[in-house]
């Protein structure tokens, strides 16, 4: 399309597309741009917006520590929980064995005592 | 944030060092939150997106090969989560804006073009970004702030590359219109601030 037939609206679309130098303007658009103050002003505005957008990359927002804790809770390995369970279970086993051993010993003492008493009475 | 330190943490976390992973989260979650907030425009939504993001990072870390920087990978996952989140929500008042709508404050005291000359364009830009429909906002944020290539943006948003490009220039156009309202009747090439 000849440059003199190119409308500002057509150039505007191309300016929005190419502001980050993702491609050169077609020659007809470039010619129009060189003669049109309105399109030149628009190009300046696009460049200014892009520069400001890039500057936002350096702006980091803080969500507070609560979010960090929430995230860490989500990804904390289940092994930590299992270890606690395993440790509790071990305590229960040991306690159970100790209780059984105590009961067994007590039972044995009772039996031995009764047998001894019976023998004494029999003799 | 030193990139090599992050790389070391990533390596250790990939080897199963959970403390390294926690440190990685500690050093990067502000960045992920910032992107999530820019994409969703809502603090609570952004928090949800960040949590989902790190769940995915945790699950997928072993697959991360280091072809790109960790931050780029994190941005892509954050963008994907935000897109999924917004798709699930399917709401917000800005969603309802027709694509060709232009938001212009006609109050001369708060005329964006006037303020652009005397004030901070950055604040106005943040405001203008929040007025964009989420689909347009996502593309322009990922491209112009975070410098993601069109291909990655398209992939994370589940659209074609050409659709991403179309959305990008529409978003840029909308931002410019919102920041510098044009006097369309002006034919001599002079640009004037539109004061209503």
SSE blueprint:
The complex is a heterodimer of chains A (123) and B (196).
Chain A: H1 8-18, H2 27-35, H3 37-56, H4 65-75, H5 78-122
Helix pairs in contact in A: 1-3, 2-3
Chain B: H1 3-14, H2 18-40, H3 43-60, H4 70-89, H5 112-118, H6 121-131, H7 134-145, H8 150-157, H9 161-179
Characterization of the model:
The complex is a heterodimer of chains A (123) and B (196). Chain A is 78% helix and 0% strand. Chain A has helices spanning 8-18, 27-35, 37-56, 65-75, 78-122. Chain A is rod-shaped, with a radius of gyration of 43 Å. Chain B is mostly helical and 196 residues long. Chain B is elongated, with a radius of gyration of 19 Å. Chains A and B meet through helix 1, helix 3 and helix 4 of A and helix 2, helix 3, helix 6, helix 7 and helix 9 of B.
Summarize the structure.
The complex is a heterodimer of chains A (123) and B (196). Chain A is an all-alpha fold and 123 residues long.
Secondary structure tally, helices of chain B: 9
Largest β sheet strand count, sense and barrel closure of chain A: none
- What is the residue-averaged pLDDT of chain A? 80
Number of alpha- plus pi-helical segments of chain A:
5
Question: Cα-atom Rg of chain A, whole angstroms?
Answer: 43 Å
* Strand proportion of chain A: under 5%
Largest sheet of chain B: none
Terminal-residue CA separation of chain B: 46 Å
Low-confidence stretches of chain B at least 5 residues in length (pLDDT < 50)? 92-109, 115-119, 182-196
- The whole-number mean of residue pLDDT values of chain B reads 82
Fill in the keyword field for this structure.
heterodimer; A: 123 residues; mainly alpha; 5 helices; 0% strand; rod-shaped; B: 196 residues; 9 helices; disordered C terminus
């Amino acid at each position: 399309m000849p440059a003199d037939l190119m409308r500002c609206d057509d150039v505007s679309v191309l300016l929005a597309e190419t502001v980050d130098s993702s491609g050169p303007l077609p020659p007809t658009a470039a010619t129009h741009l060189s003669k049109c103050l309105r399109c030149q002003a628009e190009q300046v505005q696009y460049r200014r917006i892009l520069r400001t957008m890039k500057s936002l990359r350096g702006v980091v927002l803080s969500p507070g520590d609560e979010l960090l804790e929430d995230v860490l809770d989500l990804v904390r390995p289940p092994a930590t929980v299992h270890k606690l369970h395993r440790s509790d279970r071990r305590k229960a086993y040991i306690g159970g064995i100790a209780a059984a051993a105590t009961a067994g010993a007590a039972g044995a003492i009772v039996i031995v005592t009764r047998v001894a008493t019976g023998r004494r009475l029999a003799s | 944030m030193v990139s090599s330190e992050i790389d070391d943490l990533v390596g250790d976390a990939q080897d199963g060092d959970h403390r390294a992973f926690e440190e990685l989260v500690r050093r990067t979650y502000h960045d992920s939150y910032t992107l999530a907030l820019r994409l969703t425009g809502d603090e609570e939504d952004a928090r949800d997106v960040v949590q989902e993001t790190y769940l995915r990072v945790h699950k997928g870390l072993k697959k991360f090969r280091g072809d790109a920087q960790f931050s780029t990978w994190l941005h892509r996952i954050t963008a994907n989560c935000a897109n999924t989140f917004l798709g699930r929500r399917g709401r917000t008042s800005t969603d309802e804006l027709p694509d060709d709508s232009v938001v212009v404050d006609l109050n001369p005291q708060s005329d964006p073009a006037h303020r652009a000359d005397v004030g901070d364009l950055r604040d106005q830009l943040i405001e203008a970004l929040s007025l964009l429909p989420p689909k347009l906002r996502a593309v322009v944020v990922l491209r112009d702030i975070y410098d993601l290539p069109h291909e990655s943006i398209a992939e994370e948003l589940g659209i074609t590359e050409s659709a991403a490009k179309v959305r990008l220039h529409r978003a840029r156009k909308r931002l410019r219109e919102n920041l510098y309202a044009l006097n369309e009747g002006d034919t001599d090439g002079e640009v004037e601030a539109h004061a209503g």
